[in-house]
Design goal:
Order of helices and strands: HHHHHHHHHHEHHHHE
Structural class: mainly alpha
Radius of gyration: 27 Å
Strand order of the largest sheet: 1-2
Number of strands: 2
Amino acid sequence: MQTMFWPATIAILGGALFLGAAGIFLLAVQYRRHGRLSWRRTITTSMAAVYGFGLFSYTMLPLPETRDAYCRPGVAIPQLVPGRFLDDFKATIVERGLTGFATSFTLWQVLFNIILFMPLGILAVRWLRSNIFTGLILGFAASLAIELTQYTGIWGLYTCAYRVADVDDLIVNTTGALMGAIIAYLPIFKFLSGPVEADAATAPARAVTRSRRILANIFDAAITTGVLFGVTGAVELLERLGGPVLDAQWKNFWIPLIVVAFTFWLPSLAPGRASLGQRCAWLMLTDGQGNPASASRALLRSLLGFGGINFLFHISTNLGEITAYPLLNMLLVIYIALSAFYFIFEANHRGLAGKISSTGFIDRRAL
């Protein structure tokens, strides 16, 4: 029983960690594609993430302790005869009778493989809004990838295969996905489908509310932090592999400066006049007359607004010797508080940066 449930625990933990790290990015993509967020779509995406980790944990774990752990005669020999499980069914029925067969590992191993792949077919129809044929193809492709990964010892990561690659698993798994795609049309699974919406690019413009502005800032913060984390992680990896070692000033000042420039300032100067997060929320910076803001105003708004705040935040929390960061932190907190207060109570919900630069936001589809 423990063998059945611990992979589920791994799936839940893995899915939770993945959603914690990538959840905001998924919401940004959803908003960019559909023009708004949907609880049903978000819940189904979360379920798909947990299911993906579950598929991995049940088919790949546990991993061997060493590369050669399973390099012994008679271990993990591939089963390449289609329909062998039917012979096993017959043998079990003869040996134990129908009652014994109904509770046998031989039967339940096949049933579990079918059940494991049924959600893939359901998600293909409901989440991807596709059809039964797509569910069948996805089930076959996913199962084939798993069996080949097992057969090759995770593509050479291990010297020998550590799990049995079985052609019957390919057949049974694909059947499970097909069954899932068929039953996905039952009304009980309708809740997995998000609202039917046209491409957000062709949707009518909507009002720019405070909540929408805040959501764009959240997208921007997540994108900047994610890119910065990826860049610094790559730098650390190169250093460990014998590459050039960057000094503290590069890591704590210049890398954040470059990242913020590419995620905030340069996109704000490009046509569309919006940062990456604002573009996901379909926002565009304008002057006081509702026209696209000039490059100088856009840059000033980005430097004084959330782009500058993000840059100061990243360097003030990482700098040590380069500047008196306690003072920088204090000034940053004061400026954020004043800007937030102005944003909340100003009639046009502009922050200090918007007031100083005489700029505002509109839905970019309004032009």
